[in-house]
Amino acid sequence: MSDSLYGPLHDVAEDAGYADPPARAGFFTDTSVCIGCKACEVACKEWNAIPDDGFALTGMSYDNTGQLGASTWRHVAFIEQSRPREVGDGDGGTRWLMASDVCKHCTHAACLDVCPTGALFRTEFATVVVQQDVCNGCAYCVSACPYGVIDRREGDGRAWKCTMCYDRIGDGMEPACAKACPTDSIQYGPLDELRERARARLDELHAEGVAEARLYGEDENDGVGGDGAFFLLLDEPETYGLPPDPVVTTRDLPAMWKWAGGAAAALAGCVAVSFLGRR
Amino acid sequence: MPKRGGERSMVPRAEFGSYYGRPVLKRPRWQAPHLPGYLYFGGLSGAAAAMAAMADATGRGRLSLTGRVTAATAAAAGSALLIAELGRPERFLNMLRVFKPTSPMSVGSWVLATHGGLTGLSAASGVTGIAPWLGRAAGAGAALTGPVLATYTGVLMADTAVPAWHEGYRHLPLLFAGSALASAGAVGMAAVPRGQAGPARRMALLGAGLELAAAGTLEKGAGMREQAELISEPYRTGRAGTLLRLGRGLTAAGAAGTLVAGRSRTAAVVSGLALTGGALCTRFGVFYAGLASAEDPKYTVVPQRARRATGA
Ligand code: SF4
Ligand code: SF4
């Protein structure tokens, strides 16, 4: 188990106790080329044999999936924006953002930190996976994830989320979503390489005048020590339903225990004081 | 919809973007009455165990027996609620599969298991009269696990991404400590003859005071690091706000009644009930505040944006 709760961490798998792990695996989701085909959602469901989670029309553009959850491990968001634009500014001032969201496989994963059974564990690829034969459905991870990713599947009773296709990458294959993505919006590979590629892509977009392009989750100095799955976005994170500055909750755990220790001492002290005197 | 840079109003409305107004966080899967019920019983058991051990040490037989039985019963009731809340209750023993200091639930499971065993032993010995030395030793052990059991639950709730719970990490353990003292004191003074119940009444008073003070600071957000007014809002509004106000009223009334409970058994029972009601309202209020905090994206997004803007 890792001793560090916060901050940059370069050897994530080593830190978790692996002797000679492979390179850290990651996803780079470049939303600027996403066409909203949902091939990733379908491929994920098929490969991982995930049950349906209802058939509902949400009224949210072309998004009838809604959000990530126990039975949705890739979710394509659709955002329609119309803004006042300059005359002669392209196609009428409407833009359509599409983005395929996924578990971030955080460097400091709150879900993993708080899991009491050890069901959630760090793989040799530094990804975060639930062992379904261990999880007892306590749901602590559900409230701990700062991105609202993992959830308990009702009826089944256990927590589920993206495994970054642990069963595929171990055999040298790429995850099903990345394989199915027709535009390479979803790229899988060694995290270091992906980060380099993402920075080059960002420079390219900035050079083309797409000033609003930004990377999300690639910074190892952020509140979760950087994400194993990071994104190139074209608007603020919250527009896509992502938290703007997530922090792993266990960063504050040492301080929390101190306050609880103080409270426990106060309780014991109050009991002792109550027994002073003879009545 | 809030206008961007629109007219000024007296109360500045939080402006923030979201994905169709959807929450960023998942709604906690913990439910009522299980979780708040567990918070209450855990607190009651912990403080009652400490009360029983002190009663033993000072030769108050009736108070000791009441404390021991209460501690054991409440530990069992709390454990039952925790197990019932699992998605896979038959796998509850997996809680003891590992010991993980980074998981308050893992630490808490070990504390609860130890405490449950010790209080069970001391209650069984107290009721049957068998092996009194063992009962006293187990009771003394439970006086150590008890205060931990009653307060670690503050860490349990705070160690989540839910802003109202997380930012309450300074307040919740103290709030639960006070509430636990009041709960155990309430049972003690209601169940034990007046002559032996003095310490229980004093515990109830001290506990009520601590509970009221901690709840007051939590509701105001005093001591929260950022956006205190916004993050503490769920403690003042909605179902949680109502419960916490009701709890404050009951706790204050119970404390007032406790002042005269030394003269009348009826007053002791009525005050005990009021304090118990107050403690339950506090636990349910804290629980519902977390649900409200997770369900509205503004509690997640606005403080994080502000943090990013200031580069903190
Ligand atoms: S995004 Fe959430 S579920 Fe995924 S690794 Fe991070 S904390 Fe865990
Ligand atoms: S629900 Fe399962 S995976 Fe999540 S914290 Fe509990 S035991 Fe771990």
UniProtKB/TrEMBL annotation, chain A:
Spell out the CDD domains in the cross-references: FDH-O_like (cd10560)
Organism whose genome encodes this protein? Actinoallomurus iriomotensis
Cite the 4Fe-4S ferredoxin-type domain residue spans from the record.
25-55, 94-125, 126-155
As for subcellular location, the record says: Cell envelope
Key words of the record: 4Fe-4S, Iron, Iron-sulfur, Membrane, Metal-binding, Repeat, Transmembrane, Transmembrane helix
Query: What residue intervals traverse the membrane?
Result: 256-276
Q: Which SUPFAM superfamilies match?
A: 4Fe-4S ferredoxins
What is an example of a GO molecular function annotated in this UniProt entry?
A: metal ion binding
Main localisation:
other
Residues making up the signal peptide according to the UniProt record: none
Single GO cellular component term = cell envelope
Protein name per its UniProtKB record: 4Fe-4S ferredoxin
Question: Is Transmembrane helix among this UniProt entry's keywords?
Answer: yes
